[in-house]
Write a structure and sequence with these properties.
With about 500 residues, this protein is of the alpha/beta class. The protein contains 17 helices and 24 strands.
Length: about 500
Amino acid sequence: MAELLEMRHINKAFSGVQALGDVQFHLKRGEVHAFMGENGAGKSTLMKILTGVYQRDSGEVLIDGKPVIYQNTAEAMADGVVIVHQELNMMDDLKVYENIFIGRENMTGFLINDRENIKSTKKLFDEIGVSIDPNAKVGDLTVGQQQMVEIAKAVSHDAKIVVFDEPTSALTQAEIKELFTIINDLRSKDIGIIYITHRMDEVFQISDRITVLRDGTFVGTTNTADTNKDDLISMMVGRELTEEVKTKSQVPEGAEVVLEVEHLSAGRMVKDVSFNLHKGEILGVSGLMGAGRTEMARLIYGAEQPETGTIRLNGKEVQIKSTSDAVAMGIGYLSEDRRRYGVLAEKNITENTVLPSLTKYISAGLINDAKAKRDAVEYNKTVSTKMTSVDQKVRTLSGGNQQKVVVAKWLLRDSDILIFDEPTRGIDVGAKAEIYELMQNLADQGKSIIMISSEMQEILRMSDRVVVMCEGRVTGIVPIEEATQEKILGYAMMREEV
C-alpha cells in the first residue's frame, strides 16, 4: 500500500505546555490505522492539526507526497480530509439530505434544488450501504443512524482520508457491525481511515496497524497482527513513575461507611454503578474519556437525577433532588471546570468562601460582613491560600489558589464528603503538591473524598482504593496495595461483553 499521509516531526505547545513533541505518523491507502493512548496523550491534538483546527508549531504534513498547510477545516475538507466527531454535529430540526449538503446544495438558478439533493443523498447512501430516508428529520433518528448520516456527509466530500474519533461510543452492537461494514467498504476504495478508540477489542477487529502516543510523544507503530492487548497496554503506560505512590491504605481499620451507592443508572453514561466510601478515605475514580465518572459524581451531588439506584449516607437512604439537598447533607463538589462551576471569578475571596453558608451571616435581612470576613480569613488560612487579603478578586489568583478557595468554602460549610473532580487540572507542579497535601490532611481529619482524576500518577499517589469505570460501568475496584498502572488501564478498557 502506498503512503497517503505523512506527518513528520510535529510539535505543538499551548501557553508553553508541550502538547506534541516530535510526533511521526504515516497512513497508507486503503488502510485502517488505529490510534491509541491514555487521556491527554495527544491524539486529538494531532488530528486537529491534520484537519486544520490547529496550526502546528513545526514539522511537516504531506498528502500524496505534497506538503500541505490547512488554515481551517473547510480547506481540509475541500482536499478530502474529513473527521467524524464523537460528538455529532447534526442539526436536529433539518432533514437528513439538508444536513448532508448544507452550504453546498444543488441549485437551480437562485433556488435550492431539493429533488437533486435528495437524489444525491440516496445515491450516496446506496454507495455506502445505508438505509435511511433522506427526508427524515435528523432529530427523529437514533444516535446510530445520526452517526451513519455523519459518515455519509464526510464521504460526500470526495474523502481520501476519514478520521473516526471514538465512533462507537454511543452505538449498539448491531450498529457497530454496520459501521465496520462501511469502514471496510471505504477501505476497499483506497480511502485511508484513522480510527481513534479506547476499545481494545475493536482495534483488533478492524485495524491494520496501530500507533500509540504517550504524553504527547510518539511511542511506536505496530502491525495489529503482530501485537496483543498486554503489549499495547505496556506501550500506552510505559513510563516510570517519578513521584512517590501510596503503597498502603491510610484508612483506619474498621472505618465506618459514610456513603453507599447501589445500582445507580442514568442514560448511557452511568450504568448500574455501585461502590462505597469510608470515613477518612480518598477513593480514586479512574477511567478513560467518556467513562461516565463526572456524570456519576453529578448524580451523587444532585446536579442530575438518576433513573434508578439508591444512595445512603451513614446507613440511611436519602433522596438528593438538588445540589442544595446535597450541600445540606454535607456533600461538597469541586468541579473540573473551576471557572464555570467552582468560583465567581469577579467576586472576592470572602464572597466566594461564604457563599454556600450565607444564611448563617444574615440577621434581620443584613449580612454580617465582619464575621464573614473573619471566617474567610480563617478557612483560607487553613488551606494555605496565597493572597494579599480576602478582599482580593478570585480571578487574580493562580489556578491552584482558586482551587483552595473552593475547598475553603466547603470546609466552612462543614462538608463531610468532598468530591474532587480533576483537582489539579490546569495548575502547576508546586500547586499540585499543595493540593495533594491538603487532600491528605482533610482525610486524616476524617473527611471522606471521592477524587476523579485522569492522571495515573495522581490516582496512584493519593488513593486508598481505586474505582475504575469504562463506558458508564464500574469494571474494577482495586485496593491501593494491588494497584498498578497496567491493572488500572486494563480495567479502564474492559468494556461490557455482549
